[in-house]
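Q: For a teaching handout, I want to show students what a protein-ligand complex looks like in token form. Below are the inputs, and the small molecule is arginine. Please produce the holo structure.
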Amino acid sequence: MSDLLWQKPGVAVDAQIQAFLAGDDVLLDREFFLHDIEASRAHAQGLQRIGMLTGEELVGLERELTTLAEDFRSGAFVLDERFEDGHSAIEARLTERLGDAGRRIHAGRSRNDQVLVATRLWLKEKLARVQALCREVAGIALDRAQAESALPMPGYTHLQRAVVSSAGMWWAGWAEAFIDNAQRAGETRAWVDANPLGTAAGYGVNLPLDRAHTTQALGFARLQVSPLYAQLSRGKFELAALEALNSAMLDLRRLAWDLSLFTSAEFGFVKLPAQYTTGSSIMPNKRNPDVVELMRGTYASVAAARTEIEHLLSLPGGYHRDLQITKGALFHGFGKGLAALALLPDLLRNLDWDAGRMRAAIDPSMYATDLAVDLAREGVPFRDAYRQAADPARWAEGDPQASLSARVSPGAAGDLRLDALRKRLSDASSSA
Ligand code: ARG
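A: Here is the structure, written as tokens, with arginine included.
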């Protein structure tokens, strides 16, 4: 490993302790290394603006930061255990290439605000991705709701056949869920969109740092004002981001549950596209819905990441090294969650209903509620109508298509109101 930035003369480094301190931290820093480089560029510009770097030094630093980013992308520079972390790797490289200009860049900053700014930049991108995927899912669900509004499907409560419903109603439910999830990701992104760079180790620094410049250069919507709160908010904004992701994962888990039930021979409502199924190593007949099962199970990884971070935050004020552990949890949670979510749009676009099986699963008892409501509409008090409609002899009067049309007709409770959902989706798309 290169010399540690903080090493004291005469204090020997113990390999086992160093290995424990290091863990996989430097490897995790690969995830937001490019963001750390961009924040370093903004910080250097800010230093030049207050006379802490010459124009020439800034030109050299910016050039070397660009080269480092390119080398990292191409694999010519590998961020590995030679360095304590990504932050010191950037400084080491700048010093190696530029000498004093590299040694000057850390004036007015700490790895504590470096990690904060890199994490916030990274999270803004990830939350934008969550938001975009949720919007895409909602759009597909709305289109299919429209196309399949008249396709009868049993409606269940307690997993028992309840009333006549439609594929359109099923789709519209998921559409609204994912509009909510998109909105939540967008709102969380706006909350995370604050610049902590310049708060140093959590107590500011006695330099007139140009924080307005770094805020604008990095594309943040606002400044994170209090240096102490910049540190106190570490872990808290990661939690909020994971909760926003989790909101989508909760719906993904239930949707995947529906699909794994519906694709079973017992239901037989849905045929999953072949790529989303696997076979068995022993049972040649099997066609297993592994993909939807892993989508469902991914909820656990995101929830675990959230829980790990929550437990880490039992700390007094100021920076503590415990906070470093939030990083692995955050990257793991978002990595798994986004990978699952990213498969959802195509899955939904391509799944096929078996209309015959769905219609066959609608038995006459499922008209009972509609009959009771029809009688009530004719003037029979609902409690009496309810009793009359409980008589199986009357169920034969039911007609699935009529029942369904009545339920989804304009003004009825089951009216899909797809226009209202479309409007919300477009509002969610135009706001940040
Ligand atoms: N890897 C560290 C983290 O994620 C960076 C900050 C180190 N700061 C310190 N004072 N040791 O928290």
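A: Two things your students might notice: The pocket of arginine is lined by residues 25, 85, 111-112, 115, 319, 321, 323-324, 327 (CB under 6 Å). The first helix runs from residue 15 to 22.
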